[in-house]
Design a protein that fits this description.
Shape: globular
Distance between the termini: 33 Å
Largest sheet: 5 strands, parallel
Helix content: 40-55%
Order of helices and strands: HEHHEHEHEHEHHHHH
Structural class: alpha/beta
Strand content: 5-15%
Strand order of the largest sheet: 2-3-4-1-5
Radius of gyration: 19 Å
Amino acid sequence: MEVPEYLKTRMARRKLAHAYLVVGENRRPLADLLAAAWVCTGEAPPCGQCPGCRKAKLGIHPDIVVADPEGEGLKAEAVRALRSDAYVLPNEAPRKVYLLAHGELLNPTGQNILLKLIEEGPPYASFLFLAPNPELLLPTIRSRCETIRAPGEETALASQEGETLAQLILSGAPPEESLPFLISLEKRDREAIALLLEETVARLTAALPGRPDLLPVLDRLAPIRRACAFNISPGHLCGWIAAAL
């Protein structure tokens, strides 16, 4: 499947966050790819060739736990059992992955149990919450996870927009030349702005060896990307980006 450039870079460098909320229509294939990257023992995760990747593809990896695959809704007892299992060391992979296939069906009690696990759990435990859209989970869960939208039309558009912003920065154009473009983004949602920034940062980071002058820009964009997880309007985010340039 088509994967955003920034996510490819993170997987290859083993720099994935420890918890993701995967939303959108094609969320399960993307979640499976992330799970494979976490258990991969090859040189460029997910390599597709190592025993971990092969087992992940077949759905038999002992360190990838798929919770509620049938969408029946996990009871509190099952969530507590999952929490206990998370403190057992991985069988063979560097990490242990918990894929909540129907995160939107978790009741508030179950989500709060998992919230504490995300915050205070063992360093080798990774979490994937899947839902059609992020608003179906509690704000506390959303704030502890990095939200990524499965590739689709919106993702492809955000990728193109991220490349446009990166090119504006790399060209050395005056900041005011970016304003019409940034104003056009004010109708996008926060997730789209976050993805756009991820794509921009990935391209700027790739150019760093020959452009050390980009470091201050990257430092100024980082808090804006983090702020996309909170209730800040796209208009304010775009204004912040403009000020950072």
